[in-house]
């Protein structure tokens, strides 16, 4: 019974400090690569207080994503559980996970999302009118966070604007800062502030649940109005409510976080890419101008228009391949198992990083080159894992596709831009973050349409 090669380092600390430092310096890929060179594709270390085995490659992805949940279960830091609640989807496994995921997917599936294209388009146009029009310089990352938060707020919890949304923006910002922190609840720590914000958000969401339920008793609601209304209307095969109020609140909070932070990173990376790569910019501009020309002035985009934005989506996928917003994930080992001749013991954790598979030249020829043609043909399964895979694959994939395409459509048709600091790079905290927010100089391309 052989353990994988590698070192567990100092007790408790292990390699955590060195790994977090590499994340902040944006050298985490090299950090992993150095160890793969030294030990091979499977090796051990100690991360965040736990013995950890790192696996890499397409076969390892398939193994992890399809592994029986009696062997590997989702593992999130304790801080995430305390902040998002015990009943959030990330904490559940087996039948419980299937039930809650089924309820969330009933809202996030393409047949339902096609009804939101117009609503998203309306919000995105308004965003550009309010925050970009008339400006010469903007900070792309904070603006993309505002945009994606407002869309989530409207479609997930049904709050369109006003004082309640302003309070929620502040509270979610406070919550996210402590979501990955040492879970010690002392006053003034990141974790304690995050926990306070989470309690206040939960109270607001519980009030919304009660309001919606009372309104539904008066008059049946359109279930696709927002996620909360949808989940309240959902019944299981025995005609009982599919999710408890606690489950609705925990999962609404989780989806708000999972959805807005990831898409805002992707959009910011696309803004940087399009400023730096003229050929890609020209390809996207041509595709988006063609879509715009086929529409009457002020006419909203439709699902079919988005299906025509094939090149733009290939560019977004290539961006996710080169820089996956979610760097690595963890699973907890529930019982000893063997993998490639090594034993991986119960109580340890398994981690993997999408970027390691994304740089495999047998899957993506010339992998360090940014080339949207990598996605011209169907790619092998478990090779692009920016959205995960298997039973836990990101249920927000389509949502992210719609929001990204509509935003890029308006951005490219309304503005040209250049970076204020062309050489700027990001650090990971753990998502890519630009110190200056990615400042850009913008110029209007055509007058902003007002509907
Ligand atoms: C560019 C955008 C996005 C990226 C890159 C992304 C990435 C991911 C990844 C890698 C996972 C799997 C993590 C694991 O296996 O441990 C995941 C799961 C998840 N994502 Fe996303 N995501 C994005 C957008 C969204 C959106 C828009 C939503 C919601 C509207 C969402 C909701 C979720 C949820 C609820 C899970 C947990 C699924 C489960 O455990 O069954 N994500 N996401």
Automatic annotation (TrEMBL):
<keyword id="KW-0472">Membrane</keyword>
<dbReference type="InterPro" id="IPR001128">
    <property type="entry name" value="Cyt_P450"/>
</dbReference>
<keyword id="KW-0560">Oxidoreductase</keyword>
<dbReference type="GO" id="GO:0016020">
    <property type="term" value="C:membrane"/>
</dbReference>
<keyword id="KW-0349">Heme</keyword>
<dbReference type="InterPro" id="IPR002401">
    <property type="entry name" value="Cyt_P450_E_grp-I"/>
</dbReference>
<dbReference type="Pfam" id="PF00067">
    <property type="entry name" value="p450"/>
</dbReference>
<dbReference type="GO" id="GO:0020037">
    <property type="term" value="F:heme binding"/>
</dbReference>
<keyword id="KW-0503">Monooxygenase</keyword>
<keyword id="KW-1133">Transmembrane helix</keyword>
<keyword id="KW-0479">Metal-binding</keyword>
<protein>
    <recommendedName>
        <fullName>Cytochrome P450</fullName>
    </recommendedName>
</protein>
<keyword id="KW-0408">Iron</keyword>
<dbReference type="GO" id="GO:0005506">
    <property type="term" value="F:iron ion binding"/>
</dbReference>
<dbReference type="GO" id="GO:0004497">
    <property type="term" value="F:monooxygenase activity"/>
</dbReference>
<dbReference type="GO" id="GO:0016705">
    <property type="term" value="F:oxidoreductase activity, acting on paired donors, with incorporation or reduction of molecular oxygen"/>
</dbReference>
<dbReference type="InterPro" id="IPR036396">
    <property type="entry name" value="Cyt_P450_sf"/>
</dbReference>
<dbReference type="InterPro" id="IPR017972">
    <property type="entry name" value="Cyt_P450_CS"/>
</dbReference>
<keyword id="KW-0812">Transmembrane</keyword>
<keyword id="KW-0732">Signal</keyword>
<comment type="similarity">
    <text>Belongs to the cytochrome P450 family.</text>
</comment>
<feature type="binding site" description="axial binding residue">
    <location>
        <position position="394"/>
    </location>
    <ligand>
        <name>heme</name>
    </ligand>
</feature>
<dbReference type="GO" id="GO:0016125">
    <property type="term" value="P:sterol metabolic process"/>
</dbReference>
